Amino acid sequence: MDGIGYSDGFKDRLQEFHDINKFKIHLLTLGDYFNETEEFKAAVKDLPPLQDLSFEM
Question: Which residues touch 56 (CB under 8 Å, ≥6 apart)?
Fold first, then answer.
């Protein structure tokens, strides 16, 4: 997530990694996050479900 935005060069650099296609990547801005844009909603759908993170002390 980026506060200002990301350049096309950044997107191009991601493609330089030979195994990048096995990851689902959403490039979001803070505007996407705070305004809950369609891009943000699509990214949220791709998140894995949370597991029980509780622990005993």
Answer: none
CA distance 24 to 54: 27
For 32-40, what is the mean pLDDT? 93
- Whether pTM > 0.90 for this model: the answer is no
Whole-angstrom distance, CA of residue 32 vs CA of residue 44 = 11
**Nearest alpha-carbon partner for 4 in 24, 26, 28, 29:** 29
Nearest to 24 by CA among 5, 8, 44: 44
Residues shown for the chain = 57
